[in-house]
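---------- Forwarded message ----------

FYI, see the Beta-ketoacyl-[acyl-carrier-protein] synthase III record below. Original note from H. follows.
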Amino acid sequence: MKVKVFKTQIILKELEKKMIGKICGTGSYLPDYIIDNFKLAESVDTSDEWIQERTGIRQRHIAKKETTSYMASMAALKALENAGTEPEEIDMILVATSSSETVYPCTACEVQKMTGAVNAVGYDVNAACSGFVIAFHTAQAYIHSGICRTVLVIGAERMSRMVDWSDRGTCILFGDGAGAVVVKAEEKGYCHMAAHSDGTKGEALVGSTKSFLKMNGQEVFKFAVRKVPELILELTGEAGIRPEEIDHIVLHQANQRIIEAVARRLNLKDSKFPVNLDKYANTSAASIPVLLDEMNRMKILKQGQSMLLAGFGAGLTWAGCLFEW
């Protein structure tokens, strides 16, 4: 018995020496074309007041000519520039998307081509609105194992091609865009991760190549306000800290009411939860990295601050990570 305990301690010490991935650059891309609530009200039975009251959304960016891979590539190039990293240094490209125009080549391979990341392997991750966080988990696993040292993680979506623009229940909610981060191996730091799925509730949010996206809004709302606080408590419990000690809690930008409900359930101030969905609407897997880039370029993020990211959505899936900026 003593020998087993001794061996376990040795293994744990070895794991502690392994690298973790730290974000060293961010980038984003939003299409120029904007549809505000007033414009939407011209074609569906809605109003600016109705949309803002129920969602917090004022406008959304819509891709008229841009493809998902183009937006992903533009965000990636900005992240590489911000990180001071050459495309040739990238070992892996992970793209979280559920709205790519093609099944293959995958979006990640298109990004490799457009950015010149000739030494990278790439593939796509489809976990809907949780996709970016799960792709970030994947990057951490490759870096921790020693397989990769520099990973480009992207969330890119063209949701406008998946919604019925005559259905006010869905068309008001979504927008297009892409966000990216460059993750590099470092010896110091921490990253606590958790991810979950419940396929039995998958019918609450359904999309396919043959039909428009369909959503049971009430079910998704109840799921999010129940599971996201649990996820935050799971991560902070693992880290041995209290939720109020976290500097920034960056949630998937789905709905203002969801974010406010999560804050209330945890007895946290709304100011701890940054928001930009009023400008961009729900960009699915792109929402978290777009917000990170905005915060980074506004100099809101400071080295050493604690960050918690949480995504939730179709699947149903929910995932989070707690790390040091």
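H. also flagged this: The longest helix spans residues 217-239.
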